[in-house]
Each structure stands twice: as structure tokens, then as C-alpha cells.
Amino acid sequence: QVQLVESGGGLVQTGGSLRLSCAASGDTFSRYSVGWFRQAPGKERQFVAAIEWLPGETGETYYADSVKGRFTISRDNAKTTVYLQMNSLSPEDTAGYYCAAQMRRFVDLTNPLSYTYWGQGTQVTVSS
User: Fold this and answer.
1) Helix (H, G, I), strand (E, B) or coil at 39
2) Tens-digit pLDDT profile for residues 15-70
3) Secondary-structure percent of the chain, ordered helix, strand, coil, rounded to 5
4) How many CA atoms lie less than 13 Å away from 47 in the CB half-sphere?
5) Residue 55: predicted pLDDT
6) How far apart are CA 82 and CA 97, in angstroms?
7) To which H or E segment does residue 31 belong?
8) What HEC string does 63-109 produce?
9) How many C-beta atoms surround the C-beta of residue 55 within 10 A?
10) Has residue 12 got a pLDDT over 90?
């Protein structure tokens, strides 16, 4: 079992930056793949980024096309935390952001159905 808590959301102007954190407790978090998703009102949950756990290697990262080059996902296993650095934010990035975790391999990390554990989310609002 893993418990996830997101933080770092807030209100920022267009072009600004935020760093979201996903803090984990419970199981050996370092062996979980972690994804970030976002959901705006009236829209489906959307993949943002993921970092895959690979035995003995630095995790492979994946990004949605809409955030590639602007967002960076990373993890600090010592702190059992995964981060999402978001730069060059635009109003289109406004949404609730959720982290999720799962420990199976060879699954589609862009699909929210692949994940077992979810946090409660943190709101990101980008003003124009």
C-alpha cells in the first residue's frame, strides 16, 4: 500500500513556474512507476508525465506532447518524492493535478487505468 500526497499547486501568471511534489508513504516507493495527470472541469483526466521504475537504472520518463520541453518529472527516492517542474505555464495548463503510482512493468503509463494508487490532487491555476 502506498499513500500519496500532492503539494505545490497555486495561482501563477502566464509564463510562470511551479514545482509540484508527490510525497509517498507506505511501501517501497522507489520500486513504483509514478505518473502525473491533470483534470480540468468538465474534461477527462489527461496524462501529463510519468517516470518508470526500471531495475538498476534511472527511470525512463514520458511526457504528453502538450508539455514536452516545458515540464520535467523527477524523483528523489531518498525522500520518497516525485516532482513535476512546470515552466512556461499557460492558462491551458489550469487543472487539478494528480499523482499516481503502480508497480507492474510493461504497462501503458499514459493510461490512468494502469495506476493503483492516487493522491487527492493539487490545483494549478494559470492567469492570463
Assistant:
1) strand
2) 999 999 999 988 778 889 999 999 999 999 999 999 998 776 678 999 999 999 99
3) 10, 50, 40
4) 20
5) 74
6) 13
7) none
8) ECCCCCCCEEEEEEHHHCEEEEEECCCCHHHCEEEEEEEECCCCCCC
9) 6
10) yes
